[in-house]
Amino acid sequence: MNRFIITMALTAITFPALSAQPLQTLTGVVKGGTADSCLNVGAGKDEKCYSFGSRSSIAKKLFAACKEDDGCMVTGRFDHDKEQLVSLEKAVKVKP
């Protein structure tokens, strides 16, 4: 029984770390919305719009550096399958 509890505790500690997305830096154009906003990256068939809540902590930090239609270099964790910006480390306005 004790081995089971220890195994489950170790699994709970290590599993989230293994599934976390790595930090990445992407550059795109900020698109604002009422409920959701996004960082529009790429063009054509390769275009993705990584969404985040317009009133979230991510939005507050991102919009402090970049405004609607600004080019923005974003370092954070991106979920490419769901096209979401999961966390934000840094945002810097860039020239288009």
Offer a quick outline of the entry.
The protein is an alpha+beta fold and 96 residues long. The protein has helices at residues 2-19, 57-65, and strands spanning 23-31, 36-41, 48-53, 71-79, 84-94.
Could you please describe the fold and organization of this structure?
This protein has two helices and five strands. By secondary structure, the chain is α+β, with helices and mostly antiparallel strands. The longest helix is centred in the N-terminal third of the chain and has 18 residues, at 2-19.
Quote the average pLDDT: 86
* SS-derived structural category: alpha+beta
Helix and strand run? HEEEHEE
Tally of helical runs: 2
Keywords for this entry:
alpha+beta; 2 helices; 43% strand; single chain; five-stranded antiparallel beta sheet; 96 residues
Outline the secondary-structure elements.
Blueprint: H1 2-19, E1 23-31, E2 36-41, E3 48-53, H2 57-65, E4 71-79, E5 84-94
Antiparallel strand pairs: 1-2, 1-4, 2-3, 4-5
